[in-house]
């Protein structure tokens, strides 16, 4: 897909800068994400990855630059408006609605785009058949069927992270932003997670992934963006990134690291791409 | 008998306001300590328009609803700007301000209040307490119905999400400002209608009737019963209306009993008497489960 | 005498027991790692040791002192320090105030202790007057660790220090741990990055559904097929 | 209306026993009880003992209607007395009127109370009467430019309305009207304002707590303007708490402690014996209201309608607060207004306003 | 000028009352209405003991001690167990406690206003045209003393940091060695003792105590805490003085144009519209 060329980007990040007091958390960052593409955002701690997600999802207004979705810029940085344009997200620290069940959490993620107004949103959330099917499907996809009826406050951290992903996918977004989905997921949980990410991508949803498990991230990605101290350090295909000396110095390190993990590619993905 | 009916009507009307309060305080989690101000606005507009301008009971109901609803929307808009605790105390202040307005604006009849509301008529006959009983029960039914619709809708789910985490709610597509303001408007509108009926029922009102103490009482009812549940709102309102009545004989100790009851319940059942995960709710759930699982076990064995 | 003795410990949440008869020892100067998958009970164990989770059975001794009878803050006075799971820095305190809150008067001066931590984590020196809540995820993790180390503990109880940290930083951290350990600090670590953990630790325990199922020298366990199967496949 | 079955005559009563009005509630209840005890000691009415059914309205206006309903429908009282403030009395009055049970308000001053209907009577002179009497008294004392400092509730409003209406007729020029909230403590600034406005006297409509603070501020500021106040501070607690601060100030009220009238003397003696606190106008008014009801029952019968008739026919009723010739057509009373002055530890009678054009409602 | 001095004295009393609840709020996010009960308690004890023993000072000290004990009991047995239930539950519980307290006072000391005519051996102060009564002088001195000490402790000693740490996460604060229960108990004890002190001064100044003495301070204190920026002691003091001054000025120039209690809340609402974070905001982080 990266070789195909002339496709309108789904999201264009143009010269984004974010300043917090004296700190330039992001500085003139530009790149784009094409429909269905899988892009990783990696970089050291404090590089500005989460800040970048906050800008793209409308939580944080940038001090300079702009974000375009389908060629049209975001004018009002409001998460619900960005959501309505087909962008879903998760948070670095999972944020469940703890008093609701896992199923209701996912259900909340599904339906916002069609039910924006107060009156239309008053329809019973438990009755819409297509909505129910989608939610069941997402719970199944994320492997949450067993815990679907437990309050979100009580489930394990691993389940919680997958619930966040399912919830972000609820409204059939064209792009999801996933902030460290593997953090806190045990080593035995990484393979299922990688498979889940692969399946999301297979559905044609573009993915922007922040992850310190670099091996996992790069093995799934079409391209990767590397940030360092708010600046774009490198942008390219996984192999270029792995070989990039600047990236190694700033982030990957020279010694053996978890960057060497190789995930078995999910079957069937090659042909489709 | 009539006394029982009067107490019943009072309890049902209180339950209706508390169920409406549950929309903002329970579902949307907004610390709303001003519900009696909206209740009072409804009552006051009803009283003024009927006593001084001769409008009928049925004509003032929609006016009360509208006025309270609009005022609620304004409060909702304020809530958008303020952090939780700032907002809580702003609502405390709102009570004092509204009472001051009732007292100092001539339209509202000043400190003396308004008395001598006529009995509503229906098809030519004047209301009796029995009529009030039916009317208030219908009103409670309406408020409960509206609450149920809200609770089971995407809108209601989002209100609960807003209660816990506004950022999450808006990232999932909820227009937080619109939802919050509309929840306040809806809750206040219902309270205003109840206020209008209440004014006609007790036939004379004074500013202090709708002051901070009343707001606290309404919120106490909700918390004692179980915040965030319709049954809790009703149980709390009924209990806190009945207990002071039942303790009339202990005149000198009545308020003390009320205070002690409040503290003891909140201390030992802070989730409310019939709220989620209260002793009663848990016990009921256990009973239900037992009565359901018993036959299930039999079929399993025989299968 | 063991520094920390955990014997047949039971602990949990309300009515549900999570830890069933967990026994474990930390000798002075030892580096013990507890491995286990999500929900195994590692964090519950760490919290029980600190007194943040009530213990419902078994014994918990620091040398011959009955820890279970000590309130949380008193355990810190007995030179145990704690890195909670998920950072939990004080968000509205600055980086420096976070550190000061954990500094204890006897011992070296405040300035010297602060400097020692800043030397360890240069990034924190840079951000010393930033409110901790606005730090990035990884920076907060560093702060949580520094906050534990500033009290110069004899026993460090740490829960998932690698969470959200860049790979290079994780390696550096393990090296820091090794150095501390060589200088005499005993470490009890719950961790999911099993490869690094087993490489640096002296002793390892594997926990499954609230029970210890395997234990031994870290080097031995690293070669144990059961461990490799469950915990080393991916990392 | 209620019947008078059984072997007791049930009379309802309510007062603010708790809440901010609890001091008045205590006096009111004591006065009412005294009246009933005396009648029962004399053998009751037609051989039947009188039972006083009392409720606490907790100083809460909302309770008026509920208590009234309870008294009427549950306790089936034949008549009732309000020992409470105007809001509660008004709320209850509607219910008594609808059920045709007579109610006598002991000391609530809102002129609207008897307007509720033909079963509702007001024992004390209403607020406007007392306000008018205040203006007359001030004029007599040589004050020309009074300032008004009044509490902002219907008690204050009624008195201020009466005072202002009469002020013009008596040649007074009111220089300022200030209304304060219940619980106000700081009168320094407001007194300074009145002085600056050129006031040569202060008409003070307050309750005990606010009244005490007013006099403290007045003395502290070194002002010695003449002060005329009202029955609002005619309370057991006031003389005790005020010390000598109110020395020389006058009040208008209905209870003359120096009265030589036998009814008043008898009441004061009996009250002093039965209670450990002195009688005040609230106690005396409640006592009078209850005796009126009982006298009416003695004269006309113990049914509600009988008592209503008896109250209408009431002639020259001698009470602790003076003699009531009769109830007017508007079911209010015509009684002289007493003027008392603080002298040392006592309230001393210094005058009486009897001008019919002033004291007739 | 006279008005300004009045305003300052009243504002000082507000500050003294509001300081305790402000610290408690900062620590536990509890809007503690029950604190006003300590005010009434202090008022009664100083008058009763002055009457019985002739020494107002003894009354003040006993009042403060009793206040401290009350504060300790309230936090230990009432607030701490329900803290996790959120601010609304604790707020209403506090209101319940306050109702219980006023009822007990009424039953114990009778419903009427009491006074004892406590004369302090303090000279009046004449500053030009302004006469400052002895008690007013005392109020100013005590308040500024207390404020000074609080300010020193919170900003110049490590206790300030520990207080903040407990405020943000009392469980983790324990795990870094802070004795959270003791910090909480101390803040309550001090806060209630200060309120008792304020109550004593108030009742001597106005020579009156009654069961509902705490009513107005209870709610005005909330407005002041908010105005000051919720949990920021300095802001609270500034706000208290400001409210005292504004009230006096408004009354002096417009009379009781607005109910005095509404003034505080109107000021509050106006200010929040301009500065939603309070006069001197305490530190908050949106995560
Ligand atoms: N509100 C804020 N005020 C001041 N500085 C901030 C604020 N938010 C973030 N920062 C700083 O901006 C930088 C970027 O933060 P960000 O959270 O985007 O990092 P990140 O790349 O996600 O790091 P990590 O991998 O550790 O999560 C950090 O150094 C952080 O301290
Ligand atoms: N607050 C809670 N209430 C009830 N059960 C809980 C709670 N927190 C954790 N548990 C349960 O306790 C068990 C052990 O959890 P614990 O957090 O100790 O596991 P862990 O080994 O630390 O897992 P992880 O690697 O995901 O951090 C889990 O089954 C979990 O569901
Ligand atoms: Mg991040
Ligand atoms: Mg854990």
UniProtKB/TrEMBL annotation, chain A:
<dbReference type="Pfam" id="PF12399">
    <property type="entry name" value="BCA_ABC_TP_C"/>
</dbReference>
<keyword id="KW-0547">Nucleotide-binding</keyword>
<dbReference type="InterPro" id="IPR003439">
    <property type="entry name" value="ABC_transporter-like_ATP-bd"/>
</dbReference>
<dbReference type="Pfam" id="PF00005">
    <property type="entry name" value="ABC_tran"/>
</dbReference>
<keyword id="KW-0813">Transport</keyword>
<dbReference type="InterPro" id="IPR003593">
    <property type="entry name" value="AAA+_ATPase"/>
</dbReference>
<dbReference type="InterPro" id="IPR027417">
    <property type="entry name" value="P-loop_NTPase"/>
</dbReference>
<feature type="domain" description="ABC transporter">
    <location>
        <begin position="11"/>
        <end position="254"/>
    </location>
</feature>
<dbReference type="InterPro" id="IPR032823">
    <property type="entry name" value="BCA_ABC_TP_C"/>
</dbReference>
<dbReference type="InterPro" id="IPR017871">
    <property type="entry name" value="ABC_transporter-like_CS"/>
</dbReference>
<dbReference type="GO" id="GO:0005524">
    <property type="term" value="F:ATP binding"/>
</dbReference>
<protein>
    <submittedName>
        <fullName>ABC transporter ATP-binding protein</fullName>
    </submittedName>
</protein>
UniProtKB/TrEMBL annotation, chain B:
<keyword id="KW-1003">Cell membrane</keyword>
<feature type="transmembrane region" description="Helical">
    <location>
        <begin position="217"/>
        <end position="243"/>
    </location>
</feature>
<dbReference type="InterPro" id="IPR001851">
    <property type="entry name" value="ABC_transp_permease"/>
</dbReference>
<feature type="transmembrane region" description="Helical">
    <location>
        <begin position="131"/>
        <end position="150"/>
    </location>
</feature>
<feature type="transmembrane region" description="Helical">
    <location>
        <begin position="87"/>
        <end position="111"/>
    </location>
</feature>
<feature type="transmembrane region" description="Helical">
    <location>
        <begin position="183"/>
        <end position="205"/>
    </location>
</feature>
<feature type="transmembrane region" description="Helical">
    <location>
        <begin position="57"/>
        <end position="80"/>
    </location>
</feature>
<keyword id="KW-1133">Transmembrane helix</keyword>
<feature type="transmembrane region" description="Helical">
    <location>
        <begin position="32"/>
        <end position="51"/>
    </location>
</feature>
<dbReference type="InterPro" id="IPR043428">
    <property type="entry name" value="LivM-like"/>
</dbReference>
<dbReference type="Pfam" id="PF02653">
    <property type="entry name" value="BPD_transp_2"/>
</dbReference>
<keyword id="KW-0472">Membrane</keyword>
Automatic annotation (TrEMBL), chain C:
<dbReference type="InterPro" id="IPR027417">
    <property type="entry name" value="P-loop_NTPase"/>
</dbReference>
<dbReference type="InterPro" id="IPR052156">
    <property type="entry name" value="BCAA_Transport_ATP-bd_LivF"/>
</dbReference>
<dbReference type="InterPro" id="IPR003439">
    <property type="entry name" value="ABC_transporter-like_ATP-bd"/>
</dbReference>
<dbReference type="InterPro" id="IPR017871">
    <property type="entry name" value="ABC_transporter-like_CS"/>
</dbReference>
<keyword id="KW-0813">Transport</keyword>
<dbReference type="GO" id="GO:0005524">
    <property type="term" value="F:ATP binding"/>
</dbReference>
<comment type="similarity">
    <text>Belongs to the ABC transporter superfamily.</text>
</comment>
<dbReference type="Pfam" id="PF00005">
    <property type="entry name" value="ABC_tran"/>
</dbReference>
<protein>
    <submittedName>
        <fullName>ABC transporter ATP-binding protein</fullName>
    </submittedName>
</protein>
<keyword id="KW-0029">Amino-acid transport</keyword>
<feature type="domain" description="ABC transporter">
    <location>
        <begin position="4"/>
        <end position="234"/>
    </location>
</feature>
<keyword id="KW-0067">ATP-binding</keyword>
Automatic annotation (TrEMBL), chain E:
<keyword id="KW-0813">Transport</keyword>
<keyword id="KW-0029">Amino-acid transport</keyword>
<feature type="transmembrane region" description="Helical">
    <location>
        <begin position="130"/>
        <end position="154"/>
    </location>
</feature>
<feature type="transmembrane region" description="Helical">
    <location>
        <begin position="183"/>
        <end position="202"/>
    </location>
</feature>
<feature type="transmembrane region" description="Helical">
    <location>
        <begin position="222"/>
        <end position="243"/>
    </location>
</feature>
<feature type="transmembrane region" description="Helical">
    <location>
        <begin position="249"/>
        <end position="274"/>
    </location>
</feature>
<dbReference type="InterPro" id="IPR052157">
    <property type="entry name" value="BCAA_transport_permease"/>
</dbReference>
<feature type="transmembrane region" description="Helical">
    <location>
        <begin position="7"/>
        <end position="27"/>
    </location>
</feature>
<comment type="similarity">
    <text>Belongs to the binding-protein-dependent transport system permease family. LivHM subfamily.</text>
</comment>
<protein>
    <submittedName>
        <fullName>Branched-chain amino acid ABC transporter permease</fullName>
    </submittedName>
</protein>
<keyword id="KW-0472">Membrane</keyword>
<feature type="transmembrane region" description="Helical">
    <location>
        <begin position="86"/>
        <end position="109"/>
    </location>
</feature>
